Amino acid sequence: MQQFRTGSEAETEALGRSLGEVLEAGSVVAFTGDLGAGKTAFTRGLARGLGIRGRVTSPTFTIVNEYEGGRLPLFHFDMYRLSGEEELFEIGWEDYLSRGGVCAVEWSEHVAGALEPETIWVEIRRGGGEEQREIVIRNAPSFSA
C-alpha cells in the first residue's frame, strides 16, 4: 500500500502520470472516491503516462471512453450508472480486457465482485484543504511519485 497527499488537481494528475508510466497491457485500475474527488484528474494523468495526448473526460453518459495513440490504449469506464456486475459483462468488459490496454474504472465499487485479485485499487478522498487529496494505492507496481 502506498499513501500520497496532493495539493492540487495538477499534482493529482502528475501522480496518475507516474503510475501510468509503469502500467502494462491488461492492467486494471479501479477507483473509489466521492463525486469530484479527483478520479478523472488521476485518469488524465494515467493517459499522459501511457503517452496519450488527447483530451480525457469523464465517461459518465457513455459508460466508456477509448483513448489510443500512446504505448497502450486506455479504456476509461464510469460504472456509476450500472446496477451490478452482470451489466459490466453486458457492455463487453471481457472484450476490453482482451484488447491489451489499460482499463481505468471509476465507481468500481458497483462492480467490485467482478474485478480480478491483481486489480490496482486507487482510493481518492478530499483532504483538509479545498484542493488537497488523500490517495491510497493498493496492489500497484513500484513507481516513484
Overview of this protein structure:
The chain has 145 residues and is of the alpha/beta class. The protein has a single domain (25-134), classed as P-loop containing nucleotide triphosphate hydrolases (Rossmann fold, 3-Layer(aba) Sandwich). The protein has 4 helices and 7 strands; from the N terminus they run E-H-E-H-E-E-H-H-E-E-E. The chain has helices spanning 9-20, 39-49, 85-90, 93-97; strands spanning 2-6, 28-32, 64-67, 74-78, 102-106, 120-126, 133-138. Strands 1-7-6-2-5-4-3 form a 7-stranded mixed β-sheet, covered by helices on one side. A hairpin with a 6-residue loop joins strand 3 and strand 4 (74-78). Helix 1 packs across helix 2 (39-49). It is globular. The chain starts with a strand and ends in a 7-residue tail after the last strand. The model has no long low-confidence stretch (mean pLDDT 91).
- Report the β-strand fraction as a percent range: 25-35%
Distance between the termini: 14 Å
For the record, the count of structural domains works out to 1
Outline: globular
Rounded to the nearest angstrom, the radius of gyration is: 14 Å
- Largest beta-sheet details: 7 strands, mixed
- The CATH architecture can be given as 3-Layer(aba) Sandwich
Q: Could you tell me the mean pLDDT?
A: 91
Poorly predicted residue ranges: none
By secondary-structure content and strand pairing, the structural class works out as alpha/beta
Number of strands: 7
Order of helices and strands: EHEHEEHHEEE
Give the full name of the CATH homologous superfamily.
P-loop containing nucleotide triphosphate hydrolases
